[in-house]
Amino acid sequence: MNTSFALAATTAVLGFAEPDLHAQSAADSASVTAFYGRWFGSAPQGFTAYASFYATDGYILPPGSPPVVGRAAIAAWFEQARASTRYTTQPQGIATDEMRFLNPDWVVYRSTLRGQRVPKAGGDPTPFETKYVDLLHRTATGWEVAFRMWSDNR
Predict the structure, then answer these.
(1) CB 114 within 8 A of CB 91
(2) What is the mean pLDDT of residues 117-131?
(3) Cβ atoms 130, 151 nearer than 8 A
(4) What pLDDT was estimated at residue 16?
(5) What pLDDT is attached to residue 23?
(6) CATH code at 68?
(7) 60: Cβ–Cβ under 8 A, 6 or more apart, which residues?
């Protein structure tokens, strides 16, 4: 684990103990929102493009699976997950639940995605609600995802 990540993780834990640890400007918040727009907008280009928004040593912590580290491994994990799933996901909306700046270069971002899962074999769609927690890091070229974890509420 790299030193900057260990420091950020420690700061994240401590940051949750103090409300409004680091209030940021509207421009900082807007830069995070714009990052998410670019990141999610990359999905139609494939999982390699999507994974390029992660740090080179970024992690995903998928439910029921071991951690996946690095852009190539993250892209491969998503590709395999899509191929093996029995449904197609139809998102209907994402909500930002919290954007917490731990300092000017680290942000914890919580969100909830809602939609339907349609069985590939046919049948009725099932509603879903998935919560996400992301740890973002600001670099010289912009934001990147250091960690992402998620789980379903239903």
Answers:
(1) yes
(2) 97
(3) yes
(4) 45
(5) 61
(6) 3.10.450.50
(7) 54, 67, 68, 74, 77, 147, 148, 149
